[in-house]
Amino acid sequence: MLAKILSPFREFGFVAGLLYGLGRVLHYVRSPVQLFFYELMIQPIPDTPILTPALSKGFSIREIKPGDPTLALMPVTPEDLADRFAKPTVCLGAFRKDQLVAYMWLCLGPYEEDEVRCLFVPQPGNRAVWDFDFYVLPEDRLGLGFVGLWDGANAYLRERGYEFSCSRVTRFNTISRKSHKHLKWVRIGHTLFLRATRFQAMLATVPPFFHVTITGSSRPTINIWTEPKIGSSPEEIGSRKPQATAKDEVSPPESG
Q: Helix H segments across the chain?
């Protein structure tokens, strides 16, 4: 029993372990209060493929567009699919023998988070995208679906001049964090959200650092700066705004 109580502290550290425990308690008692603890990541798009030609031979990567029957295999509601396709997003699927193995979504502009009220803006917008909802079908999770899809996504982004993909990962999702570690991602900050119906409070290690709304009428905007390039320390990447031209910078829409 004691070992079970202490395991989150050993795995996540003291502060994150406390937040994990608090989140589990809130969920168990069905409290309207929710905690969301994210790591903000930047992943470089490599100049060369991840997989060897022999390993990548069995995969084909293509865009999945509205009306594609493959969409029925995704655990996403029709309403959410319609909302995603109405935005500047692209869905990429990895296929083996015409069977869907994995899929992911790319937002080619500011990304409206769906769990909390927050706008994430990859910067510069002409060289960075936001990736979300990366999903490997259960029957393929012991195979190369994860790496195969990223290999194809990297090629897709390279061809269009993108150099970085940004995302957020739940701090307690150890499987996702370990998988992305092999792709040389860099953690540039943390965000902690507390939500209770319309009330929301945010603490972050990147600007704007703090935000609170009582009525739900506003949201924070977090710019994810990818310069200086990967290779600098996490403190340099994402926390310091580079000298960018007006062409580089994406102006997020006004908060509603």
A: 2-12, 14-28, 53-56, 78-85, 145-159, 174-181
Whose tokens are 């995208």? That residue is 129
DSSP 115: S
Backbone angles phi, psi at 52, to 5 degrees: -70, 160
Cβ neighbours of residue 39 closer than 8 Å, sequence gap 6 or more: 168, 169, 170, 171, 177, 187, 189, 190
- pLDDT mean over 79-90: 95
* Domain chopping of the chain, boundaries: 32-225
- DSSP, collapsed to helix, strand or coil, labels residue 74 as coil
DSSP 50: S
Structure token pair of residue 54: 């022999």
Q: Which residue has the higher pLDDT, 199 or 18?
A: 199
147 backbone dihedrals φ, ψ, rounded to 5°:
-70, -40
- CA–CA gap between residue 122 and residue 221 (Å, rounded): 11
Contacts of 119 (CB under 8 A, 6+ apart): 110, 111, 112, 113, 219, 220, 221, 222, 252, 253, 255
Q: Is 112 helix (H, G, I), strand (E, B) or coil?
A: strand
Task: Name the token pair of 82.
Answer: 């319609």
Query: 32-225 maps to which CATH number?
Result: 3.40.630.30
pLDDT tens figures, 43-56: 999 999 988 887 78
Tokens of 250: 């994406």
Cβ partners under 8 Å of residue 28, min gap 6: none
Q: Give the Cα-Cα-Cα angle 143, 147, 153 (nearest 5 degrees).
A: 135
Q: Is the confidence at residue 121, as pLDDT, over 60?
A: yes
